Every structure is written in structure tokens, then in C-alpha cells.
Amino acid sequence: MTTTLVVRFNKQTVLAVISGLVMLFGLAACQKEPPTTRPPVALPVYDQGDAVLGKVAYEKQCKQCHSLQVGSNNKGPQLLRIYGANVGLLNEYQYTDALKNSQIVWTAESLDRYIANPKQAVNGTRMRSEPIADAKMRQDIIAYLSTLK
């Protein structure tokens, strides 16, 4: 003996179920992914500069375009844990192809070269700041960035 269950839905019930499913899946599809972050800094603190002076120089030279907060990219990517990191790790920042393809690891040497003259270090970069000619100031900025773990 087989029994058949017949369920009838009225038009309003069907529309309510469809609306609920659309909202459920639509909202999930629209949710932003959490911002990416760089792994903790593994390199020792850079001691060829003064991190205290570097913070002051960073505030004056870098802060207008670069944040130090995860997910807070401005004209340039946020710089938290940049020291020792591979270039182009932040998914939510649109790096130029030139920078992505450079395969740079941000060591003291590569940061110094880039800060000294971004366009010469990576032809095709978007960084528009004036080069920082003062080697001591660059060392101080790098020392400061190396402390941001």
C-alpha cells in the first residue's frame, strides 16, 4: 500500500520562499571577504636606523598614502608587516602588474632602493611620491617599519 502526500502551496507562500532564498544567497554572495594581512615579520628589527625618528619621518613622508591598519588601503597599500614580506600579498589592493611581477621581498635593501626612487626601482609602479634622497631618513623609516610586527 502506497500513500501519496499532496501539498499545495498558494502563490504567496511560493513567493515568500523564493524571496527568502534570494535574500539568503544574495547577501552571502555580496559579503566582502575579510581583508588580507601579511604574515608576522620574521626578520630581526633593522638596527641601521632609528625607529623613533623613522616613525616621525613615516608620519611626514608616507602616512598620507599608506596606512598601518589591516584592510585600510589608501592611494598605496597599508604597510603593516611590510618588512620581510613578498610584494603584492594584499588581495584587496590593486597592485600594478610591474610591481606584482617584480617578485620583490621587502628587505632593508629593497625598501631602501624603492623609497629612494620608486620609478627607477620598479618601472611601471604607481607610487607618485618624490624620491627620498636622504639615506639616513630612509634607514630610519625602514627601522620603524621593521618594528611593526
From TrEMBL:
Keywords (alphabetical) are:
Electron transport, Heme, Iron, Metal-binding, Transport
Q: Name one GO molecular function term.
A: metal ion binding
Gene3D superfamilies hit by this protein: Cytochrome c-like domain
PANTHER family to which the protein is assigned, alphabetical? CYTOCHROME C
Domain Cytochrome c intervals: 49-149
Q: What name does this protein carry?
A: Class I cytochrome c
